[in-house]
Design a protein that fits this description.
Length: 348
Amino acid sequence: MSAIPKHLRLLIVRLGAMGDILHSMPAVTAVRQAHPEWTIGWAIEPQWRGLFCANGCEPRTATMPLVDRIHIVPAKQWARSPLSPATLRDIRRVRSELRAMEYDIAVEFQGAIRAAMVARWARTRRIIGEAKPRELPARWFFDEKVPTRGVHVIEQSLEVANAILGENLPMPLPLLPRDPAAEAKAAELPQPFVLLSPGAGWGAKRWPADRYGAVARRLAEAGYAVVINGGPAEEYLGREIVESSGGAARMLVLNMAELIAVTRRAALAIAGDTGPLHLASALCRPVVGVYGPTDPARNGPFHCPNRVLRHPESVRDHARRSEPEAGLLTITPEAVTEAALELLREVR
């Protein structure tokens, strides 16, 4: 292994999505804590910048506890117009920005060709990635391919990070920002409250809204306020839950800073395999996970009080189907409510 400079400049490439970024954060936090003198940059899609910086991410006032620099890489936008002048100008911007930082090492956590290409643009001395990335051709871009043995993706990311130092780093909770305005807003919510996040990346992972409504009604009867995280594209789910709960739940449309602040104060979070569930886990809040076609052993709640409900016949499948997976539909509101109340009693 090459000698490591004392003041190393490290680039992390994990463009998205929310849960995947959160899964990489403990490994980078371990590096940050072991080497606070290093300069760490992170290449991300623009919608996830709020996971790294507070105060609106304004350059002069932003507080970033984990990284020193974020590089905005709108790769999905580029894919829609790959040959447009605007896309080509933006690619040149990113490439110039990365090279100007003179990073020593790039760590590619995404296991994807486009992320590996971004890492290559930085012209670092070393590019490190998993030996078996999600997209196998991505490994052609890696100078060092790290075999991983961990089951959970958080464990796998830490193994890749360990390759930077050649040592075993501890597994910390990730460093997430605190936005004062968002924290003040979250402090006004009634306590104790349960946070429901009904959205998901695709329909097969999405437990029906009316079942969340039934859970909300039962939790309200047990004395808990219920708050729904209605993301910008998921307000319709929140409205369905409010209606089916008979008004027992309250919907909030939250930006990233507010979602972090609200989640930090939640007595419990209930969600499927989605970014807000992984955020709750990262903040070590009690979590009830409602899983279908994805494997909770690989990407379920990690190192926090949790209950995961999944039908034994559900098969791991990442096909972007629009309808809920059959096994997911066998999970009843009664089972989710029972798991939630049991976990609340335990942590209380």
